[in-house]
Amino acid sequence: MTLLHLTPSDLERRGAPHTAREIAQQPAVWQTVQTLVASRRAELDTFLAPLLTAPAARIVLTGAGSSAFIGQCLTPALVQALADRPGVRVEAIATTDIVSNPQQCLTPGVPTLLVSFARSGNSPESLAAVALADQVVGRECRHLAVTCAAEGKLATELSSRLDALVLQLPDETHDRAFAMTSSFTGMLLAAAWAFQLPLPGADVLGRAAQHLLETETDRLQSLSDSAFERIVVLGSNGLQGLAREAALKILELTDGQVVALADSPLGFRHGPKTILNDRTLVLMLLSADPYTARYDLDLLRELRREQRGRVISLGARAPDGAGASPTSPASPVLPAAPDDDVLLALPHDTPDLGLAPVSLVFAQCLALLASLRLGITPDNPSASGTVTRVVSGVTIHPFDRPHA
């Protein structure tokens, strides 16, 4: 396998074979995941129906780190899909918040579906969040676990329960490298298809990702060679969750040597913009929503006008028309920057949730190249052992409040 002009021997020598393979395999993995979800359609529908038709219920999307960002990517699309069921409330709450503040995050007696995302299923917070949900919510709590490790504690503990369903993804999604890549996009798409959210099929998404892998190598290498010292990833709505994941990939794979920040385009002006200097790279994830895209484009024009760092846009529509709507003229054409606008090979009407996995492939590749440029081994980037593949050092303290 060759990725980004890197041969298998190059990748092995530089400590990147797993990371590279797991990035490159995503188009194929997505097809496998879609087939898996389709094969369990009847089981999923039976499990989800009572909660989705309840007069009042909560869906809590949870995980830690990258897995928490999956919920943030999904929440806006799921809220919109359930707009005709106002009694169903959808929230993304990290397991790290549930564990430290269970009574603020969980409501006794309210029908609740805890959707847990976990690569290994062995993180202390993942297991504790399930136990706390059972304790605080009581018998009205149900669990949907989307996980990549069949032998993980989350999967094994929930698989025999009548109030739980485990959506076990194929083994190839269980990334062996430190950073989550195919596990992230695999779980994201599995949940999207499980809830039947509108987005292109795996064939369309996979072709777009493969096209990116085959055509964007030179641009990605040029960006890496620019030796940026800071990166800002900006996205609105569900793409803000994706921005957080993209920024985390850069931070993780460069072992913290590249400062990474994520925000929304509107939020960025309120202080975080001070991070910009001439060694900053900005990735702007353009929303597919015409109204939201106007705010994205306002900041994109502003940043390019100010010329403090390089600004790259990613979207399914060219930036000069992304802010148009049926009742208003198109936004003014941006300053010419053909090398700085990445046009994803997706239908123009692809929703933000569909843009997310393909856009993330670009960021993953950039993170890999930045890691290699710094002489870091991407498969195990933390030289000091400060962070580990499965988090360690967490003590789960007993929660002695009354049960629901």
UniProtKB/TrEMBL annotation:
Q: Which InterPro entries match?
A: GatZ_KbaZ_carbometab (IPR050303), GlmS/AgaS_SIS (IPR035466), SIS_dom (IPR001347), SIS_dom_sf (IPR046348)
Keyword set, alphabetical order: Isomerase
Does the keyword Isomerase feature in the UniProt annotation? yes
User: What does the record list as GO biological process?
Assistant: carbohydrate derivative metabolic process; phosphoenolpyruvate-dependent sugar phosphotransferase system
Region named Disordered: 1-20
Q: Does the keyword NADP apply?
A: no
State the CDD domains in the record: SIS_GlmS_GlmD_1
* Bias-annotated ranges (Basic and acidic residues): 10-20
Q: Which PANTHER family match?
A: D-GALACTOSAMINE-6-PHOSPHATE DEAMINASE AGAS-RELATED, N-ACETYLGALACTOSAMINE PERMEASE II COMPONENT-RELATED
Q: What is this protein called?
A: Tagatose-6-phosphate ketose isomerase
The source organism is Roseateles depolymerans
